């Protein structure tokens, strides 16, 4: 039977998961801009009287080996973690858009060569490529951003290329050619904006992923180093006491998980909405 | 525009086309590896400063300048004194001779270092891939398009696990099952018991990811007309799922398995680190810390090789599952 | 419910049809989430007879068919006074007992075997599946039974085809295999949901013959279709559905040739054919066309000479899609190109539009070079030729509103608007010309109905004021009543503007209704051409003759 006309999505259906994700991201943004609103303590205040305290009302996430309040450190670490996430994702996207568009628009030889190169780059798992860069340049904040950015770029580039190829097939591209628009005008008016539609969703997913990669590097002792309150660095710092004070490891990790989940869920919601609107 | 075409005299026999396709794939794989080797080779040139100086400083633990005479034996040992192009050709052809250069710190061939340690890592990775597939297919089959609560449970579980970073799952499993419950050993062993937690650490997020992909496809497939046809023949829901839907819905996840294997190998680095389990991960972290670029490059290349081979196998696997893909 | 002829025909049927109904449905209601899509319908099916349920999209006909095998779908609510199979109550069955009936007592055939058969399994396994499900025979006996069944439905080399997969078979053979699977257990009732839709007309005729054979063996057939002319070939009884209700129900001769209900009459009038040439299709407006502008047979607007197009496949085998095609399209004329799928008609259209470069040959536009120009030199004269596609939605940028789409087209036209106000005025005039209003300016195409979208597509094509319009299957995706409106619009526009149409369709009725002259294409070649009436009444080429014999049509009173 022929398709029944879909009712136009008049209102955005708010699923509970979406609401929670938006709230989590809102809290993260506050921590990013004004961490002082979420905690009154100083992230670097050492208190040797109260080291390695387990979570309680006065210290929500407990304290570390120098008596610093872990919750406060997590709040203040948001800025650095998100900085890395944003920076790496932005770098990855710029590379991905350039490579993806060139590969998607080029035909024949250039497309083949670029696609092969992307295949090669994709053959390097993100973490390994990042480790190679760190081995060469030595660990630092800048290296981590560049490493994670370059590491995840090929994956996005392939997505962008796929999107370009998909949009290139669309009926409206041919219709626009049939009206007498130049190739460049068609790219500018239709191909570019439509191929870019999923990008916001991809960015949102990407930031979460970048934070995970960066904290993974730090966890291995190869990313941002303690005493920075960057989330990965907190994990690195907590490893020594893992059998006695596991909260130092589990709680910052949980924050990363919750932040990533919120970003991923938001990204997916955006993706579905865009797909729905594009049909 | 539809371009329905008329085949005219298909003169080339099908086995010739199959063989040509296979050769093309192998050639492509070789090219990918050479390109990967080129990237790692030039990456080694990006090390700041003089490489021989860096090696000597690494050995002596000092940071100083050396005379040309002091540097000469090192340059000769690593071949830094030869022209760049011959170093490059040597490196790339070495790839096919099983020669990945010499470690800056251990002064042993990188191939040997990797060969000693890669066994446990491969066991871990393979076990994790199988476990992930079993978990993903099992959970999908049980929960996709069931009562709303069951389906929601399944998809939430997948979304949740898919975004768990491996180090965190590792730590939680370690704390709960090894430290608190004492079911598994805390410190890494390559025994079967010691392998359980690292495998789960890698398999759980991958299962979530594969499950999501399979579930999306499964839902689409269950809406297809051929599923309705099967039902009109009097087939039960379970039989429809197993006999018709499953085969269609695993294709995208199979396509991703090659990539997943690469991701698993890098996840293994973290899992081995968490559980103090011997393997390539430990070697890699040490090598990165000591700036032993040839060893890092070698490991990266081996992983790229595994990825390339895995993708060849995947190509084969999905043409078996979906013969339509053989034609294209 | 008031069904004009139901009582009368029911009485007549009892007189001529003493047999008891095999499948009897009384007051069937189906709702999805509170929205009722089937609103209390009743009908009976008798052994050896075919009941056709006819309706446009959204009429509830397919839902009705699914309900008869207990597969209405998730979230549905079914209520009925009676669903009986040979006296056995089906209305209150459990899923488990439904399964025993499906495939064994009631067979089901869906449209388009390419998606209705499992592409990953062998044809033989698919055909034999009902046997396996209902535990008939052994593995080996089922295999040989599948081959027998394939042979019985006229599949050549059945033992070879049984080992192939559905995608390796031609469309016709696939559909036969699908039917073979449905009749594997010799069910007493066969439900066919659009069994011939998406098939070429010659294949369609074969499939209908196959169903007729099944009927003659005593099977009760319930056929669901949107196509009244297909129904005429097989049905003994017709029920016309609209918005969940049966508006007219009776013997086929009554309903198709002496319809009582207005909707049935409108549906019948809307079918384009040789008889409708020169008239309007929408009922109540069936006045002859307005005075038509004369065709200027001295001025060929498009002249195509020896076009051919060869594609090289990935297996490096050349396929000739268009082979030595020549034609001329005169000013003010409609030239129809008709052919089955794969005949090369769409590629020919693409070449005429200079969107697909021909391998050999060229097309001139109004006496000067067209396809042989470079893209840059062609662009300024593109405004002289426009195009309307089959699927209007995909031809609109999803981000653009109707207004923006039309302004963009005006700007590329012969008289680009000089101000925003002028652009708006002219867009509104265009919308009115195609039967829409200014209120659609801000709409996204996604929000429009199929017919409205095609009107926007036509408006866009007309905006640059072209002399030639290439219409590539412009009504194939539309319901027959909407199709009638769009075809009427196209003829009106031709009368008004004198535009020439190169009209591509697989539908012989549509082609005959619209065209002055036609080309019949097969396998990339033109096998016959000439005046439309002459070709249709006295076809010379055996292929055209075959097409026309296969064409299901309503004999006009």
TrEMBL record, chain A:
The keyword Plastid does not apply. It comes from the Bacteria. The chain crosses the membrane at residues 12-34, 82-105, 117-136, 142-160, 199-225, 245-266. Gene3D superfamilies: MetI-like. Residues 78-267 form the ABC transmembrane type-1 domain. Keywords: Cell membrane, Membrane, Transmembrane, Transmembrane helix, Transport. It is a multi-pass membrane protein. Its main location: membrane. It is found in: Cell membrane. Belongs to the binding-protein-dependent transport system permease family. PANTHER family: OLIGOPEPTIDE TRANSPORT SYSTEM PERMEASE PROTEIN APPC, PEPTIDE ABC TRANSPORTER PERMEASE PROTEIN. This is ABC transporter permease.
UniProtKB/TrEMBL annotation, chain B:
Gene3D superfamilies: MetI-like (1.10.3720.10). Belongs to the binding-protein-dependent transport system permease family. Keywords: Cell membrane, Membrane, Transmembrane, Transmembrane helix, Transport. Pfam families: BPD_transp_1, BPD_transp_1_N. Residues 118-318 form the ABC transmembrane type-1 domain. It comes from the Bacteria. Its main location: membrane. It is a multi-pass membrane protein. The chain crosses the membrane at residues 22-47, 122-144, 165-184, 196-214, 250-271, 299-321. It is found in: Cell membrane. This is ABC transporter permease. Coiled coil: none annotated.
TrEMBL record, chain C:
PROSITE patterns: ABC_TRANSPORTER_1, ABC_TRANSPORTER_2. GO terms for molecular function: ATP binding. Keywords: ATP-binding, Nucleotide-binding, Transport. Residues 23-268, 302-548 form the ABC transporter domain. SUPFAM superfamilies: P-loop containing nucleoside triphosphate hydrolases. It holds the Pfam family oligo_HPY. It comes from the Bacteria. Belongs to the ABC transporter superfamily. This is Dipeptide ABC transporter ATP-binding protein. It comes from Paractinoplanes globisporus. The lineage of its organism: Bacteria, Bacillati, Actinomycetota, Actinomycetes, Micromonosporales.
